[in-house]
Amino acid sequence: MSFRLAAYAVCIEDGRVLLARHVPPQGESTWTLPGGRVEHGEDPFDTVIREVAEETGCAAVVDRLLGVDSRVIPAAAARAGVEHQNVGIFYRACIAGGRLRPEPDGETAESAWTAVPEVAGLRRSSLVDVGLALARNLPATGHVAPVAVGGLIRH
Questions:
Q1: Residue 21 in contact with residue 31, Cβ under 8 Å?
Q2: Is 39 helix (H, G, I), strand (E, B) or coil?
Q3: Labelling 9: which of 39, 80, 102, 107 has CA 20 to 30 A away?
Q4: What is the domain count for the chain?
Q5: Of 66, 57, 54, which Cα lies nearest the Cα of 9?
Q6: DSSP code per residue over 22-67
Q7: What is the mean pLDDT of residues 23-48?
């Protein structure tokens, strides 16, 4: 089994959420939250700020920890073809500056503010639903029920 620790930003402003369109080298693109892998020795708090800047061109300010999500992705659905565990740390953040742009030499083709009700109609990562549920419910435990994957929702 492979393992990944990642940090994600949930930026909600005026009823819109900031999403990034991930375009992998192979396969279809999906909308996701800005964020990514925690580098060795890096604090996840710093990771989310770095990832937002890299993927969107904007400066993020974190205002609270929302929660942690752990999910195991079956080998058949995982990119590497082996069972994969992703542990995601979700932070609520706001954008303090910068300008939306594609990620230079990366897999984020674009970023966009999207009305929260419109998210349900997008082909998206389950991370989007987890992040929105955490932001909406602010569970004391920092944990939400698993998100079913299928239809427009992908791992």
A1: yes
A2: coil
A3: 80
A4: 1
A5: 66
A6: E--SSS--EEE-SEEEPPTT--HHHHHHHHHHHHHSEEEEEEEEEE
A7: 95
Domain harbouring 109, CATH code = 3.90.79.10
* CA–CA dist 155, 126 (Å, integer): 6
Our CA angle for 118, 124, 130, nearest 5°, is 90
**Average pLDDT rounded to a whole number, residues 93-121:** 96
SS3 17: strand
Q: Which two tokens stand for residue 109?
A: 């083709």
Per DSSP bridges, beta strands 58-73 and 84-98 are antiparallel
Give Dmax over CA atoms of the chain in angstroms. Answer: 40
CA 16 to chain centre: 15
Domain that holds residue 63: 2-154
